[in-house]
Amino acid sequence: MVPKNGLIGEKENDMNKTYIIAEMSANHNKDFNTAKKIIETAKEIGADAIKVQTYTADTMTIDCNDEIFMGMKSSPWEKMNSYDLYKEASTPWKWQKDLKKYADSIGIDFFSTPFDKTAVDFLEGINIPMYKIASFEAIDYPLIKYAASKGKPMIISTGISSLDEIQEAINACKSVGNNDITILKCTSSYPAKLEDMNILTIKDMIDRYSQQGVKIGLSDHSMNVETVVSAVALGACVIEKHLTLSRKIKTADSDFSLEPNEFKNMIESIRKTEKLLGKVSYDYSEKSRAHARSLFAVKDIKKGEKFTAENVRSIRPGCGLHPKYYEEILGKTATKALEFGTPLTLGDFE
Q1: CATH number of this structure's domain 285-350
Q2: pTM recorded for the entire structure
Q3: Per-residue confidence (pLDDT) for residue 99, from 0 to 100
Q4: Angle 69-142-114 from CA coordinates, rounded to 5°
Q5: Residues spanned by CATH 3.90.1210.10 within the chain?
């Protein structure tokens, strides 16, 4: 069985679980053992998947110090040129086969974000189960088509896309016969402020795209649990969040990454939210219903005596006649003597 997100899963009880992705990104800090430890930690704290990124500085940009090649303003990288940032942050390709093998051995899904066609070809060679397209590549429709053509689930962040561009990305997948698409609400600032999250957009995305068979999730760069809980409550079926072993280990992504205990608390909050959401149900507890109101004789009533507001009342518990009969019973006569405290039945009046 596959979960509601249509990604990876085998157990029937996974059907309604939110799929939780721990994003490693640059938090390996260029140390292979740290990368393995992040994968191990993600598994231990309950994440469903670990995600890396597959690029080199040369596949991302050019080595140029012109102002337009500098990092985003008000980001942790604004003083670095893009080439140096990507060189520092990249996950070495030579690690990724072994990292996937390790993830497989401990039972956590491993996949990646490719940033060009050579990365897709490489990832196909290690047989990753799905592809993630980053927000800034979500307008690169040839890349999306190429990744989607491999026939694996596609996850696409939408942090810098217009409505038209989101639809174009969806169309790019479908144009090559791939209909397993999840789009993620994303605010592309690092870290993202609460007032910029606009989580209600998730509900609108569900309304817009679910009829096309597209699933909706959240890629979150904020530093709080409320964001993801709100997203799940609104219907998000995938959550992506950065994971680091410690924010004291300074990397390109550490300032907006959760530490293991924080990530674990987030997952626990999501699982509690899923239980709270449950299903649409108007069932009630019969045990509790026994304490509802019903009609009782509140005075001794003789056979043939009329029922009045003085000798009949709606009171607790609920073992008597439904209160909806109250107005109907007034003025009717008792078919038998009724003692004070007797619950009424349909056969007690005529």
Answers
A1: 3.90.1210.10
A2: 0.86
A3: 98
A4: 65
A5: 285-350
